[in-house]
């Protein structure tokens, strides 16, 4: 009886915290189906559901074009970061060379530098390359990240060297070891880095606002920011919530599909020297 009571209390506490965490998100979704007079209420169930807020967003904002731009930029950045991050991470963890430890330390050091310090120099480089108002201007500065390199390095270190040595004895080349043994075993790391990179690039607003000025090339977060803060939404809070919901939906769907691997990667990867 005592054990059942403790279990009930535990689930009750979890339920309360989960409700507190989920309520703002559920309120946002609910508000997209409410009229302007009802949207400020605390109820999660609209008394008169309406799609007017979504229609207003699609009427005033080229959502589909912005969605395509965001997808192109985010997918390209994700593929680049995963590919190059895995290559560099493997060289730092499984290939023995004298500068590996120092380069790893330098990469970790760069993670401590605020991005604001490199914002202006990076922008000047993009201007010199003529990549303003160009989607490549959003992709190139983010094609490789220090976080991806370190995450891949840490995960690759969890793969026993004896397994790779056995593969070499069996006649496998280094490329065969990488693509047939290391990478398949590292699927959780690939998915985790992919999700984190996609989420970061998808939600990026500051850099697109600086580089992209042409409306047809704006990403979805950038366009939603202009819509909400630029006065296009006027005083329609429901329309602002609808635009925010559209922006968040792809990330929610992506995480829903890959959450198992996302959690597994953090469980199986530790920080090792």
How would you describe this protein?
- The structure is a single chain.
- The protein has 273 residues and is an all-alpha fold.
- The chain contains 13 helices and no strands.
- It has a domain of 191 residues: MetI-like fold (Orthogonal Bundle).
- It is globular, with a radius of gyration of 23 Å.
- The model has no long low-confidence stretch (mean pLDDT 84).
Descriptive tags:
about 270 residues; MetI-like fold; mainly alpha; single chain
Helices and strands in order, then pairings?
Blueprint: H1 2-31, H2 52-60, H3 63-93, H4 100-110, H5 115-128, H6 136-139, H7 146-157, H8 161-169, H9 174-185, H10 187-203, H11 206-211, H12 220-229, H13 237-268
Helix pairs in contact: 2-13, 3-7, 3-10, 4-7, 7-10, 10-13, 12-13
Distance between the termini: 47 Å
Q: Which architecture of the domain at 63-224 and 240-268 does the CATH hierarchy give at level 2?
A: Orthogonal Bundle
Rounded to an integer, what's the Rg over CA atoms?
23 Å
User: H/E order of the elements?
Assistant: HHHHHHHHHHHHH
- Biggest sheet statistics: none
Q: CATH fold name of the domain at 63-224 and 240-268, please? A: MetI-like fold
CATH class of the domain at 63-224 and 240-268: Mainly Alpha
Shape: globular
Number-wise, the strands total: 0
Structural class: mainly alpha
Report the uncertain regions: none
Total of helices: 13
Fraction of helical residues: over 70%
Q: What would the average pLDDT be, to the nearest integer?
A: 84
CATH fourth-tier homologous superfamily of the domain at 63-224 and 240-268: MetI-like
Strand content: under 5%
């Amino acid at each position: 009886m005592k054990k059942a009571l403790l279990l009930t209390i535990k689930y009750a506490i979890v339920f309360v915290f989960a409700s507190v965490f989920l309520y703002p998100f559920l309120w946002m979704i609910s508000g997209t189906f409410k009229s302007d007079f009802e949207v400020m209420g605390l109820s999660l169930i609209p008394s008169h559901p309406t799609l007017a807020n979504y229609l207003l967003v699609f009427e005033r904002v080229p959502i589909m074009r912005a969605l395509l731009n965001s997808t192109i930029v985010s997918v390209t950045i994700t593929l680049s970061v995963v590919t190059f991050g895995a290559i560099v991470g493997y060289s730092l963890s499984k290939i023995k060379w004298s500068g590996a430890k120092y380069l790893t330390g330098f990469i970790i050091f760069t993670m401590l530098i605020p991005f604001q310090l490199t914002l202006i120099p990076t922008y000047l480089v993009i201007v010199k390359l003529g990549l303003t108002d160009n989607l490549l201007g959003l992709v190139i500065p983010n094609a490789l990240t220090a976080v991806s390199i370190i995450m891949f390095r840490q995960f690759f270190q969890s793969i026993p060297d004896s397994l790779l040595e056995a593969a070499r004895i069996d006649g496998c080349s280094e490329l065969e070891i990488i693509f047939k043994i290391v990478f398949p075993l590292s699927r959780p790391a690939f998915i985790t880095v992919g999700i984190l990179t996609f989420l970061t690039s998808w939600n990026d607003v500051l850099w697109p606002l600086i580089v992209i000025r042409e409306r047809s090339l704006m990403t979805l977060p950038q366009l939603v920011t202009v819509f909400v803060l630029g006065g296009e939404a006027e005083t329609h809070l429901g329309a602002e919530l609808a635009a925010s919901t559209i922006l968040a939906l792809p990330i929610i769907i992506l995480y829903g599909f890959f959450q198992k691997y996302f959690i597994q990667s953090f469980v199986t990867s530790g920080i090792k020297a």
